[in-house]
Amino acid sequence: MNKKNNGCIYTKQWVVDMMLDLCGYTSENNLSLMTIVEPSCGEGSFVIEIVDRLCKSCKKYQIEPLKMLGCIRAYDIDKDALAMVRKTVTELLGKYQIEQALVNNLLYDWFREEDFIEANIDKADLVIGNPPYIRATDISKELRRAYSKALDTFTMGTDMYIAFMEKGLKTLNESGKLCFICSDRWQKNQSGVKFREFLKNNDLYLSFNCQMHDVEAFEQDVTAYPSISLIQRGMSEKVDITCNSTFDCVSAKKIVDNFSKGICDTDSKSFNYIISNDNQKILDFPTIEEAGISMGIGIATGKDAVFITEDPNVVEEDRLVPLAYARDIKDYHFPAKPIKWLINPWENGNLVKLDEYPKLRNYFYEHEDELKGRHVAKKYPDKWFRTIDKLNTELQRQEKLLIRDMSNMTEPIYEDGHYYPHHNLYWMTSDIWDVEILGGILLSDVVYKMMEQNSVKMRGGVIRNQAQYLRKLRVPQYSSISDEDKVNLKKAFRDRDRTKATKICERLYG
């Protein structure tokens, strides 16, 4: 079967990169925790990049290659195209020095010569790709009858990509996302009515729509009115972008960066960018930072094995800072006594003089080669014993909320001003708020739903609580909360009473 008859239009690499980045499928994340589906892989525009990112991620997180089984499912009915992509993936896996026996198992596990619409498919975290573009008039009656039985929205006037969108959405788990580049006609035309109703009835929302009608997004010249559409469940801000013919890979990276930060960039010659929301009431509330809350991530050292210790005698006592480390948290509390310390080379924003601290000097010189091998040390060779981030002593003394990088729910944890947060924890402080009252709000399902829509989701419903997503959260102004609600939110937080916190927040948010 040839490309034209199968509706196969191959996507340019920078568009593939944009879509994967948009969904958070990057090697910076532990991709072995995710299942991704490519419903029409063709010769591999998407799946080759997916495999490469998965391999890089496993290398970064020191995940054994065997764990990649079950992470990818790629479908196509074109035997020749599948043979070609398998060959390319085999060569790619070879570059990562994966044994041939495992390569064969991965190829068998990942690639399916099967019609995606009619296949029995396990739930997935992400469905992504470029579905076949075959107009309704070019679909055989036999195939149309089969698809009509299998799907809810497929009618006599429905183009093929609608079938792939519905099946893809039905493949997602509760927190999953579908990202397709395909025609955007379904958003307005009559043949898309049933599909739009399907989205509404299933609490599915078009959260990102990038119209690329004038953009050369494909390897061939086509007139398909394409858009990149990101669909997910529940309430979400909607980003609408209209691109012109100058839109390119640089513009794409800018959009992905803006989307991850929840900001609207109106100063661009290649696209127009607006943010809207069906739930206007939520937008009436300020963001976390607008409400007077500071936030950030804990300290990155570049070599935890050297800078973090469980031995309080390894250097001078005043060079040790009690460290808040995610794995040391038990029952939402930090230990009464420190388990780990950060070896601190900073004093008032400057590196200390090693000659004034003999034990610290000897310790660092024992690990000189390890420390000098870091990127930050090569960038600042005369400051080779520095941590990547400077230590802010004021942050240690402040009451704060700490949030794990990954969790199944929003789980803010109170810290009373004794520990300094590690890089696996995000922190929030405020000169306005009682942070335990803020903790009650963050504990609620109202806030969890906001995070669920904005954050990268991993296998098992784990949410990435990264700063770029936390900054999108909206909260009431502190002064607008009644004294009674403040007392009850604080108690709900201390009792970890999510139900009580949710009831209060549902009323506060209206």
Oligomeric form = single chain
Give the strand order of the largest sheet, numbering strands 1, 2, ... along the chain: 3-2-1-4-5-7-6-8-9
Q: In this structure, how is the largest beta sheet organized?
A: 9 strands, mixed
Average residue pLDDT: 89
Spell out the CATH superfamily of the largest domain: Vaccinia Virus protein VP39
Topology summary:
Layout: H1 13-22, E1 36-38, H2 47-60, E2 72-76, H3 79-95, H4 100-110, E3 111-113, E4 124-129, H5 141-150, H6 160-171, E5 172-183, H7 193-201, E6 204-211, E7 226-233, E8 237-243, H8 249-261, E9 271-277, H9 280-283, E10 294-297, H10 304-307, E11 308-309, E12 320-324, E13 341-343, E14 346-347, E15 350-351, H11 358-366, H12 368-372, H13 375-379, H14 393-397, E16 400-404, E17 406-407, E18 413-415, E19 420-421, E20 425-429, H15 435-443, H16 445-454, E21 463-464, H17 467-470, H18 483-495, H19 498-509
Helix pairs in contact: 1-8, 2-3, 3-4, 15-18, 18-19
